[in-house]
Amino acid sequence: MAVLCATAVLIAALPSKYSMPAVQASRTCRASSPVSMCAGGISRRQQLAAAAATGVLSVFGTHAASADETFNKMGGALEPYIDVQKGYKLYRPTAWNQFDTDPGVYDVKFQDVINSFETVQVSSSPVSSATSISALGDIASVAAKFAKSRNAELVSSSERDADGSLLYSMELQGDMYHEYLALTINRGKLFRLSTVTSNKRWSKRQELYKNVVLSFVPKGF
């Protein structure tokens, strides 16, 4: 009952506009869709690209996901963003508009300069009774509850270790939108990362958003 109540509070705390989990080494839950948060493997080209990016990635610590998935900067389409005060870091879409702090809605929002419906949004809120996102349940149950609360289809869900913090991520598809969402708890804060676009443009943003989610770490140093 406590877990169900905590999940209900978490869902209610999310911005109502869209929102709706990224990946511990060996555990991934998928729905019927073939779309996945995980790449099929690591090619030599990807390994070389990862090695070339080592200098930039070093500031982001040891958050790299499992061997099944590899973060990359998409040829410069992503650039690092760190919020030391709030305590998180990620790679954001390069050249997108940035909006700082709408209290109760987001800590930061990045918006495509042409397609305003396309956003990457981070929000945080204090939590007092949970030290890990697992307190809300396992990835499958949490993802299912979020999908149901949004009247959305759960396409896939997964979990990973984000530099010592368990992170849940999920892919959701609604009537009008498609989204990758990540949830994690660290140092008394619940972090939510939402990446949204329209269903029509999902194929153009899927890889970009996947890498944004893979880059997120709830530490701002």
Give the SSE layout.
Elements (H helix, E strand, L loop, with lengths): L1 H12 L14 E3 L13 H9 L1 H4 L20 E6 L4 E6 L3 E6 L3 E6 L7 E8 L12 H11 L3 E10 L2 E9 L3 E10 L2 E10 L3 H14 L6
Antiparallel strand pairs: 1-7, 2-3, 4-5, 5-6, 6-10, 7-8, 8-9, 9-10
Derived structural class: alpha+beta
- As for the CATH topology, it is Protein Transport Mog1p, Chain A
Return the domain count: 1
What is the mean predicted local confidence, pLDDT? 79
What sort of overall outline do the alpha carbons produce when their principal axes are compared?
A: globular
Distance between the termini: 36 Å
Describe the structure.
With 221 residues, the chain is of the alpha+beta class. Helices cover 23% and strands 33% of the residues. The radius of gyration is 16 Å and the shape is globular. Mean pLDDT is 79; it is low at 1-7 and 12-67. Keywords: Signal. Residues 1-25 form the signal peptide. Pfam families: PsbP.
